[in-house]
Amino acid sequence: MAYLTELAAKHIRDNNLKGRTPIYSASRFVRLLGDLKPEEITEHHITAYRQKCVELGMSARTIETSIGNIATVLRFAAGKQVTTGRRLRQNPPAPSPVELSSIAAVYSIAPPWMRLWIACTYWTGLRLADSIELLWSVSGKPCTQLRKSAGKTGRHHAWPLPSWLAKIVGETAFPTGLCLENTKKLVRAQLALCCESANVPVWTPKNLRQRSITEWSRANATAGAIVHGCGLGVLSHYLDPLQILESAAPRVRLPECFGATNSSGEDSLVANFRRLDPGAQGLLTMTAERLAAG
Known about the structure:
Strand order of the largest sheet: 1-2
Distance between the termini: 81 Å
Structural class: mainly alpha
Strand content: under 5%
Helix content: 55-70%
Number of strands: 2
């Protein structure tokens, strides 16, 4: 194994990281610049690596993330601080959340396991690999909770489990016959096929994650940050993320195709009340008190 690749593997082991991105970055560096020892790597090599990645047509964001991975490995695994040079200019991200109408169109023709993945990903906002691992652990059997540690960040997530989703999870088995990478390919291929069959623009797991985070953020900005996984800063010392999500959950807009109906008119009234802003809630409460008083 090349010097830098071995260091990247050591960095992952020592820090108990789940993702293998540092290894991928190190392997690419070795392929493009050779098997350099850590002490030999300088800013000149980083600059050359950046240029070769540009020539390969890689995006600025991917290139700079890769360089950051290499610098981190050198710093923590080899004790070497390397200057990374001038960063490439990156265009700001342009999120494109999938429309609810497109979700409904795909959902109507998708096989049961794909419906399960769509519903679960919409609710949790998980990245593709994490959503697959979650469904491997909970699908096809009675489920009382949704918990998952994110592979990329290591952050632990927990979500309230509404009855409509518990029903889908409990009644549907998710494919388990392939490894993670091949299951990811299966999901992407099936999703693209369903989009084409439903005659809607092809959307991706990332577009669905963006829609999930958008809808949670519409319900409550803090809830959106929790689902995204960007962290709460110092608030994490004071807030219980699950309680925040439980409070925001009734206000999250859902596609009708999920069958998220309430069991009674009273349940519907309570859910709609929770969707109102505080001012509207106060006005409705005052009106209800006056009506009850006769």
